Amino acid sequence: MNGRDLLRRDYKEYLDFPSLPYGLATVPLGLKIWLEKFDEGQEVEGVLGDLKSYMKERQLKLLGVLTSYTHIKKKTGEVGKHRRELFVISRDPRLNEKGGMFDLLEEDETLELGEWKEAKNFGGVNEGEREGESEKWRVWQQGNTRATRKQVAPILRGIVDKATREKDKEGKGASL
Does the predicted model carry a pTM greater than 0.85? Predict the structure, then answer.
């Protein structure tokens, strides 16, 4: 499957906040497999291109990708443990600030987000930022593999609600 098909296969969109439409896609493979579909050295940009294209098509400000897969042990080929990753990309400056969405996700105890284990295989890259585009992204390994979209969606909603409410209040206060 190509990137667009992977994303739309199991996708939910949230329109709770008109100024910040967002979506969550569950992808049934590890990010490493998706990255390996692209030429060496272009893996990260390739996946980012898939995500940005999908965001543009759906007119999203935020996209979360939940991967779910079974790890295969490299040395023995044996089936390992079930794993999950979380990839989040935001194009909303209200979410991208220090202490914003990315920091709040890492602080969340339910998901148990940690360093993405595959970063070393892709130039050590697990996050990025493009200030001119107000774009920020990050990938985590999810420690709590039982936490599905049913847990992730309300956490994200709470963070988006907090960010939009606080920033909107700041904007209104400045104009008084």
Answer: yes
